Amino acid sequence: MTTGTLYTYPENWRAFKALIAAQYSGAQVHVLSAPPHFHFGQTNRMPEFLCKFPAGKFPAFEGDGGFCVFESNAITYYVNNEELRGSTPEAAALVAQWVSFADSGRVPPASAWVFPIMGITHHNKQAAQNAKEEVRRILGLLDAHLKTRIPPLTCPRVPLCWVTARTPTRTHCLWHCHISGSTLMRMASPCDTQSIVSLKSSLGSS
User: Fold this and answer.
1) Which residues, including other chains, have CB under 8 Å from residue 13's CB and lie 6 or more apart?
2) 77 pLDDT band (50/70/90 cuts)?
3) Residues 6+ apart with CB under 8 A from 200
4) In which band, very low, low, confident or very high, does the pLDDT at 75 lie, cut at 50, 70 and 90?
5) Phi, psi of 109 (to 5 degrees)
6) Helix, strand, coil abundance in the chain, percent, nearest 5
7) Least confident among 81-95, 98-112, 163-177
8) Residue 192: which of 24, 72, 73 has the closest Cα?
9) Max CA-CA distance within the chain?
10) Confidence label for 131 from pLDDT (cuts 50, 70 and 90)
C-alpha cells in the first residue's frame, strides 16, 4: 500500500485528484497544506524542497520510502493501484486517453469561463460565452460516453481516468454562482451516484 505526504496549498483542485484516487485505492496520504509545516510561496523555494522537487511546483508527493514525484496526474497515477490504472495495455491506454483529454480538452475552456468571474483575468463576454459552449459540448461528449458504461461512481473500483476527468469540472464550476447548487459539486466519494448530466443540465439553464 502506498503511503506518503502530499504537499499542496489549500483547495488545490489538482491535489484533489490524488486525494480522491487515494480514497479508492486505499493509499494513506498525509496532507501538508498549512503553517507551520507548509507556507505557500516559501516552502517550495527552500533548498531541501527543491532538492526533492526541482520544479518547485505543487502538488508534490513524497513517499515514506523516499520516492518523490510531482505533477498531479503522475501523483494520482502513483497513489492508485494496478486495477484502477488499467489491468491490460488497452485499458491503460484508455485511462491515459481520458486523463490527457481532461487536461487538454476541458481545463482550458473551464478556466476561460471561470477565471474572469474570480477576478484572475479580464472579462470578455464573447470569450466567456464561447468557453461556456465548449464546456457544454465536452460534458455532452463525456455524458454520452458514460451512458454506455457501468455507472462509475456506484462501483467501488473507479477508474483513474474518471477521477481526473471529473475533478477539473467539479472544481472550476463550483465557483460559478448560477450552478453552485448542482449535485455534482460534491467531492467524489464511493457513495456519490450523480452523473455529469446534472452539471450539463444546469449549464443549459444558466
Assistant:
1) 167, 168, 170, 171, 172
2) very high
3) 136, 139, 140, 143
4) very high
5) -70, -35
6) 60, 10, 35
7) 163-177
8) 24
9) 50
10) very high
β-pairing verdict for 28-32 and 68-70: unpaired
| Domains of the chain listed by start with CATH number | 3-80 (3.40.30.10), 86-205 (1.20.1050.10)
Counting residues of the chain whose pLDDT is more than 90, the rounded percentage is 42
Work out the number of other CB atoms within 10 angstroms of the CB of residue 135: 25
Measured in degrees and rounded to the nearest 5, phi and psi for residue 35 equal -60, 155
Neighbours of 17 (CB within 10 A): 28
Q: Which three cell numbers stand for residue 120?
A: 484572475
Q: Give the containing element (helix H, strand E) for 99.
A: helix 89-101
Cα angle for residues 159, 138, 162 (degrees, 5° grid): 10
How far apart (Å, rounded) are the C-alpha atoms in residues 40 and 31? 14
Please give the grid coordinates belonging to residue 11.
483547495
Q: What is the pTM of this model?
A: 0.70
Closest CA to 187 of 37, 10, 23, 72: 23
Partner residues linked to 70 by β-bridges: 60
Q: Which three cell numbers stand for residue 34?
A: 498549512
